[in-house]
Amino acid sequence: MPFNEPFRATCFTKQYDYLFNSKFPKSKNSVKAIIDGIIINPLQGDRFPGFGQNTHIRKLRIGLKEYHISKRDGLRLIWLLNEDKKWILMVSLYHEREYKREQIIQEMIRDNLRSIISYIETRYPQSPTSE
Q: 25 exposed, middle or buried (CB, 10 Å; 0-12, 13-18, 19+)?
């Protein structure tokens, strides 16, 4: 059974718009195709440890051939996946070269997750995250 269309967190949308409206407009369609492909194969990329059995965070490295940028130096796409309920939540999209240290990247992803949880708790007070 295929996964549902991914939800896009506000923080993800802001990052997406910034990257493709100002930095890499020629790569917008190819990256959109990769994001759309996650519906078909949501287990691609690396799995982050520390989450549940069926809910986990994944990271995919994306090269930008239109700019001759390799996967190593390209974009990182982070998403939250729930295999049982068949949903995907796009958490973050960033250019690896914009961040000097891994600690800064981890903090940015944590901030994105905090804003997502805050949004869920505000909109849905009875959600599992508010217990």
A: exposed
User: What's the number of domains the chain is made of?
Assistant: 1
Q: Contact at 8 Å (CB) between 112 and 119?
A: no
Is 33 a member of any domain?
yes
Indicate whether 129 belongs to any domain. no
Q: Which of 12, 9, 17, 16 is nearest to 120 (CA)?
A: 9
Structure tokens at 15: 């990052």
CATH of the domain at 27: 3.30.2310.20
For residue range 64-97, list pLDDT tens digits in order.
999 999 999 999 999 988 888 888 999 999 998 8
HSE (side-chain half, CA atoms, 13 Å) at 90: 24
Phi and psi at residue 84, to the nearest 5°: -70, -45
* Element at 77 (helix H, strand E): strand 75-82
